[in-house]
Amino acid sequence: DPGSEMLVANTRAVQSEQRTISGACGGSATYLISANSETGAFSGTFTFVNYCEGATILNGSATFSGTVNTDSYTPVSFTYTFQNLSGTCGGQSIVLDGSMTMNLTASPLVVTINLVLQENSKTYKIENYRMEVTEGGTYEEIDLSGRFYHPDYGYITISTPTAIRIDAGESYPSDGIILVSGNTGSEGGPTRARMTILPAGSYQIEADTNGDGTYDHGPVEHQWDENA
Question: What pTM value is reported for the model?
Answer without folding.
Answer: 0.82
